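Collaborator request, handled under Task 6.
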Amino acid sequence: MRKLGWLAVVALVLGWQAPALAAIQTIEVMVDVTGNTPEDARAKALEYVKKRAFYLMLSKTNPEQADEIVKTMTTEQIYQHIRGAQVMQELQNGNQYIARYSVSVSEDMMARLKATDDAGASKANPTLVIPVLRTAEHQLLWEPSNIWRSLWNTTALEQGEGILVVPYGDPTDMQITDSATILSYNFEPLKAMAERYGAGEIVVVLAEYETAQEPHGVSVTMRRLAPNFDKMKDMFFEVNEQFETPESLLAEAARVVALQIKDIAKNYQGEEERRIADATKQAISVPFTRMNEWVRIQQIIKELPRVVRFDVNTISINHASGLLMYDGTPELMLQVMEAKGLRVEPTGDSWQLTLMTR
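Structure tokens returned to the collaborator:
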């Protein structure tokens, strides 16, 4: 019989460690899960410990409303509060995985969440703001000399109301885009970054010093990206007695642009809330034998025309359930689903979805 015991492991950091100045709370979480494969079990363990650490932290910072807040949040929104997960001990026994994790949670983000909840703000997805600075010599994104991005970090924290989020600029973000590619991308290449931060929309804000002609100042191009649109707006901030150089205008420009993005986000959230309120709602049941079947079905659902939103309620090793919200009649949605490769079997109040065999 194979002898098993706690394995000594080299600390594995899953996710970026925040800078030393960031306020981080570390929480230990135990997990014992079984998956379809050893890799599946580890993936489920990581998902569980992140969500569990978030809930434990939320229960400390906002105990009276923790349960209600969690119900309104997506997995992506929860993950944006996590700064890293470190395996302290682990035991792998076939498809069973037992481990002790140390999970780092952002105190700043949790405080922002609490403040947003106390203010009664919408729980809709935040807007991801990507600040790019163009100088005479360089175009800057993640580079430390991008003072425009540094100003946006402060602006989003002080004025964002939990709506505006600036990406960390860690190795994961750097793999998605850099200063050379960011202005040429539409939403699709940046989709992974939006999902990472739980954002429904991305705004690339390009600031450029204008000193070649009078009046001197800073031009800002605000480009809004989402799955269904790509819109641009240009603004110019002129030097004056209060702001005597283009560089001194950057903080004021960030403040003004942040207010505009926030107003747009709130209006968008209002439209989304109205669409959700008016949508046809249908309980969904999805049995599956392999995890990739569930992943594929989720992808098809999200790409269906007329879908307003799809919320996953429960998921186990062979079954998932959720609530589908869509525009139109049930008959039309059934036709669309079948045309996209989904077999639908009404069972009571629920629709059971499986992939059609080709």
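The cover message to the collaborator said: "The longest helix spans residues 246-278. The chain has three domains: 13-118, 127-274, 279-355. Please let us know whether this matches your experimental observations."
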